[in-house]
Amino acid sequence: MICPNCNRDTAHLDKTTQAVKVLGKDEYILMQDIPVTKCNSCHETLFDAKVAKQLDEFRKNPELAAEQLVKVAKFPKVA
Ligand SMILES: [Zn+2]
After folding, report:
1. Which residues are paired to 15 by β-bridges?
2. Tens of pLDDT along 23-76?
3. d(CA 57, CA 41)
4. How many angstroms separate the alpha carbon of residue 13 from the centre of ligand 1?
5. How far apart are CA 49 and CA 36, in angstroms?
6. Closest to 16 (Cα-Cα) out of 59, 43, 25, 4
7. From ligand 1's centre to the CA of 14, what distance in Å?
8. What is the rounded distance in angstroms from the CA atom of residue 10 to the CA atom of residue 20?
9. Is the pLDDT of residue 8 over 90?
10. CATH number for the segment(s) 11-64
């Protein structure tokens, strides 16, 4: 499929997992299986408007997400 970023025919549908910040709070929601368009040429990962709207919905209403213990690690500094 055509990549909306670089216009080459090298994009495909995929799924990704990403942490999104809760609106106005220092909290995150780990969003799993987010449908995205990924491009093999420009390596862009794009959400369509419907997906972006759904992500916003979770950012505004974090109670929609299930509570689950998640381990968090900061990547160590590389010298
Ligand atoms: Zn592209």
Report:
1. 35
2. 999 999 999 999 999 999 999 999 999 999 999 999 999 999 999 999 999 999
3. 31
4. 12
5. 11
6. 43
7. 14
8. 27
9. yes
10. 3.10.20
In 3D, which of 55, 52, 44, 33 has the Cα closest to residue 1? 44
The domain locations on the chain are 11-64
pLDDT for 79 equals 78
Q: What is the Å distance from ligand 1's center to 12 Cα?
A: 10
* Rg for the chain, CA atoms, rounded: 15
CA distance 1 to 14: 12
Rounded to 5°, the CA angle 18-65-28 comes to 45
- Expressed in angstroms and rounded, the spacing between residue 16 Cα and the centre of ligand 1 is 17
